[in-house]
Write a structure and sequence with these properties.
This protein is of the alpha+beta class and about 240 residues long. It contains 3 helices and 12 strands. About 25% of the residues lie in helices and about 30% in strands.
Length: about 240
């Protein structure tokens, strides 16, 4: 009889253990390894104020803004840091106050762009410069459709936010030209300053071939005058005295 009771108790305990194991876990133990979902990023340029009405940050920091000369090509080097926006591209606009502006869209936040009107050749070296044009005979004269980028120009950087700054045209250096690579002025006219490719030949044409006939003519006149004076003096000496 005792054995029968013990067997019944053991069987009952086994059934209770099986039932407890089959029960669902509590709500707090659904996925003990899962972490809470991250809070969504809120940007000040999209949502200007927080829940209390305080303004969030939304600005564009220009960290590098350097006009440079690279291989005789004028360029603008820049680095911008947007705050309060997820955007990672910048649109750069050289603002023309009286005509079409020059726009570089979807640029990286750090980089370099050509100055408007600058043209590099096949080897990367500059062959044309803003504010100058080349005549059919190869000479350069001041004035073209990009006069507005010199001596300075306003440049707008847009990421949402945006910022506008004034930038000076990059100067030339002994190793890099941001102008036509010659310096001899043939026409002293502010509206048409002409440069030539060969300073030595220009100097020769201005001081040699054009003035040489004048020097020869002057020397001949002096010689003729001296000869006339000598003849008059000889005639006076030979005149008989009375």
């Amino acid at each position: 009889m005792v054995r029968l009771v013990r067997s019944a108790v053991v069987a009952l305990v086994a059934v209770l253990v099986a039932l407890v194991g089959a029960l669902p876990a509590s709500a707090g133990d659904d996925n003990p390894s899962a972490s809470p979902s991250p809070t969504a990023q809120v940007y000040g340029c999209i949502n200007p104020v927080d829940g209390y009405g305080a303004p969030r940050a939304c600005q564009l920091l220009i960290q590098v803004l350097a006009p440079v000369c690279d291989n005789d090509v004028p360029k603008l080097k820049y680095t911008v840091n947007p705050v309060g926006t997820p955007n990672d591209k910048v649109t750069i606009t050289f603002i023309n106050p009286s005509g079409p502006s020059v726009v570089y869209a979807d640029q990286p936040l750090t980089g370099t762009v050509l100055w408007p009107g600058a043209v590099p050749g096949p080897d990367g070296r500059g062959i044309d410069w803003p504010g100058w044009r080349q005549l059919p005979n190869g000479t350069w004269v001041e004035g073209d459709e990009f006069d507005w980028v010199r001596p300075s120009v306003k440049v707008k950087f847009e990421v949402n936010p945006e910022e506008t700054v004034t930038v000076a045209y990059p100067p030339s250096s002994p190793s890099c030209n941001t102008n036509p690579p010659t310096t001899v002025v043939l026409v002293d006219d502010p509206k048409a300053v002409v440069l030539v490719d060969s300073p030595s030949s220009a100097t020769l044409s201005a001081t040699g071939s054009e003035t040489q006939p004048l020097i020869i003519a002057g020397g001949a006149l002096i010689l003729i005058g001296a000869l006339a004076v000598a003849l008059v003096s000889i005639a006076r000496r030979r005149r008989p005295t009375t």
